[in-house]
Amino acid sequence: MSDARTSILTRLRASRDAHPVTVPPSDFGVLAGMRWSPEERLDRLRTMMEAVHTEFLDATEADWPAVVRDFLRAEGVKTLLHGTPIAAALAAAWTPGAPERIAYDQPVEGFKERLFTGIDAGITTTLGGIAHTGSLILWPTPEEPRLMSLVPPVHVALLRADRLYDTFWQAMTENRWSQGMPTNALLVSGPSKTADIEQTLAYGVHGPKRLIVVVVRV
Amino acid sequence: MVDAAAHTTIDFAKASRTALADQQLRGNFRRAMDGLMSKRAVQFADSREWHAMRALGASVRLRALSKLPELLEKLEENCTRNGIRVHWASTTAEANAIVLSIMQRVDTRLVVKGKSMVSEEMHLNAFLEEHGIEILESDLGEYIVQLDEATPSHIIMPAIHMNTKQIAHLFRQKIKDAEYTEDVARLTDLARRVLRAKFAAAEVGVSGVNAAVAETGTLCLVENEGNGRMCTTVPPVHIAVMGLEKVVERLEDVPPVISLLTRSATGQPITTYVNMITSPRKDGERDGPREVHLVILDNGRSNVYADAELRDTLRCIRCGACMNHCPVYTKVGGHAYEAPYPGPIGKILVPQIEGLDRRGEMPHACTMCNACVEICPVKIPIVGIMGRLRAEAVHPSSAVKDAGARASRTEALVWKGWAAANASPLAYRIASGLAARLGNMAPSSLPLLKDWTNVRTKPRFAGRTLHEMAREKGIADV
Ligand code: SF4
C-alpha cells in the first residue's frame, strides 16, 4: 500500500507547510526536579508497590538465593523457572525439598505447554527500580527471556538496592536508552490486575498473581 | 455492514432518551465516574506539578504534530531497521485488508487481541469473522463486551456500563461449565482460565499503540492485566495498529505522556505494565514474535490535520478523562453515542472522521461547561472545536467532511430576520412589541421552537417589553 503512504505523507506535508505550528519548548524540569535520597527512594518504591499488592523480601548479596529458596519452599512452590545469569547462584544454595529448578534455555516453541501449565514461579533480575512510580525496570535477554516474568503465577524479581532511580525519565536519559533499545523493555509495577468488573480490583488476571521483590542490599 | 450504515444519520437525542430512562445504567455510570474522578483528583492534587506536567505533555504532543510527516517517516525508517514491517492505510478498509492478508499468509485460525480503539474504529472483529478468523478480545472488559455481543461504552473501561450481577449472569450463560458467582476474584479467574489456553494457541496477536517513538522505532503500550504482553509476546506474529497521530519524537517524550495518561485515565501513578517493543525476536532470543507489523491508519486524520484549529484534536492521548468529567456522558453513558469514541473527544473526533451528515448531532450533545477542557492533560480546546464543528455543520466548506449538511433554510431565515430586527431601532421595537403581545400564542410545535419545547417548558413572555417597563420606571434613553 505504498500509494497510501505517498498520499498520506503528501497531504500531511502540504497541510503542515500551509499552517506551520509554533511549539512551546518542552520543559522537562518537572521530571528532573523529582529527587529523593537513596533511602527515601527505596521507601517510596516499597510503599507504592505494596499498595498494589507487591510483596517484599530483604536479602544481601550473600544470602539472596537462600532467602528465595526458603520463601518458595514455605509457599509450597514446586517449580521455579530461571535464566542463565543466576543459575549458578541458585544451584549453589539449593537444598533438597526446595522447588525444582527449570532453566529457560530453549525456544518457547518447544516449551510452551510446560511454560503455561507446569511452572509455579519465575525468577528474573531487574535493571533497577523507579521511586516516582514504584516500578521495576526489566530488559529481557536471550539468557532471561520475556515470558519468565509473565506466564508463571508467581514472579520473583531481584532488585539491587543501589540501582534505584528517581523517575522513569531519569533512568532512560542517564543510561542513554535512546541509543539502543532492546527487543523489549518493561516497567513492572505490581502483579497483574484488573478493575474491569465494576471497578473492583482483582489481582492475577492474565499475568502473575503475585510479585515478590527481593531487595538485595550491597 | 459498516458501509451501509455510513449514510444513515445517528440519532443521539433518541438514543440518549432511552439511556436516561434506564436507572440501572445510570447508577452504574454514576458510581464508576465518581470513582474515576476522585482517583484522578488525588493524582493531581499538587497543582504546580499538574500545570508543569500538563504543559510538558501538551508541548510533546504539539511538537509531534508540528513535524508529523517527518516523524512518521522516521518512525518507519527506524522500525524497518529494527525489523518491524510498516504498512500504511488511508482507510479502515485498507487497514483491514492489510491485517487480513498477513493473517492469511500465516494461515491463521485464532487471533488474540489486546485493547485497541483503532481496531474498534476499523470494526476489525466483524471483518475478520466474516473471513472465518476467530478473534478473541483478551482485555477483561473487552472480553465481557465481546461475550455480550455489544460494543465498549468507555475507551478505558469498556464494560463500565455493566455491574457485577450482570457480568455474573453473562459468564454463567456464555462460558462452558461456569458456575454462577458474584465474587469478582472468581469471575476474573474464570476469564483467566479461558484466555490462557487461547494465548498459547493463537497464531497472531493484535494490539494498539499508546505511543510510537520515531527516534528509536519503539511501540509503547500500557496496561494492567498482562493480556497486552501476552498478545505481543506469545503468538508468532504481532500486528500493532495505530492512528497516525500516535507518534512522538523522542524516547524521553514517553514518560510525561504515559504519566499523564495513566493518572488521568484511572488515577493510577502508572499502569502495572509499560511494554516497550522495538523489534521482533532476534537470533538467539527464546521468545517473542518472529514477525512484528505496524499498521499506520489515516482514516480522515490527515483531513483533521489540514485545518489549523481542528488539528488540535490529534493531540489526544485517549485517556478518557474528558468522558469521566462530562455531564452529558456521565448521564447517558457511552452507547448512546453509537460511536467508537464517545464523550467529548468523540464529539469532536467522530464527526470529523465520519462526516457531519451522519454525525452532525454529536457536537451539539454538549452543555459547553468546559469541564473537559479543564482536565484534558494535553490541553485540547475541546469546547472551541465543538463550536467550530457546529458552525461547520451549517456552512458549506471544505474543512470538514459533509460540512453544511445540517444547514436549514428556516434557521437561516430566522437569523436573517433577527439580524434585520436588531439593525434598526424601529424594526426592533415592532418585533419585540409583537413578541411580547403575541408570543404566548405561538404553538409549541413551531419549527425551531419545537427543539426547545421538546425537552423544556415553553417560556412565557411578559406582556410588555423590557424597554417599555424601563421607560415606565423613568429610565431615560431606552
Ligand atoms: S481529549 Fe484530552 S481528556 Fe479527552 S481523551 Fe483525549 S487527552 Fe484525554
From TrEMBL, chain A:
Name of protein: Lactate utilization protein
UniProt cross-references to Gene3D superfamilies, sorted A to Z: NagB/RpiA/CoA transferase-like
Residue ranges of every copy of the LUD domain listed in the record: 43-216
InterPro entries membership: FTHF_cligase-like_sf (IPR024185), LUD_dom (IPR003741), NagB/RpiA_transferase-like (IPR037171)
UniProtKB/TrEMBL annotation, chain B:
Domain of life: Bacteria
Transmembrane segments: none
InterPro entries associated with the record: 4Fe4S_Fe-S-bd (IPR017896), 4Fe4S_Fe_S_CS (IPR017900), FTHF_cligase-like_sf (IPR024185), Helical_ferredxn (IPR009051), LUD_dom (IPR003741), LutB/LldF (IPR004452), LutB_C (IPR024569), NagB/RpiA_transferase-like (IPR037171)
Domain 4Fe-4S ferredoxin-type: 307-328
Pfam families per UniProt: Fer4_8, LUD_dom, LutB_C
Keywords assigned: 4Fe-4S, Electron transport, Iron, Iron-sulfur, Metal-binding, Repeat, Transport
Keyword flag Repeat: yes
Entry-linked Gene3D superfamilies: Alpha-helical ferredoxin, NagB/RpiA/CoA transferase-like
PROSITE patterns linked: 4FE4S_FER_1, 4FE4S_FER_2
Annotated protein name in UniProt: Iron-sulfur cluster-binding protein
Species, as recorded: Azospirillum oleiclasticum
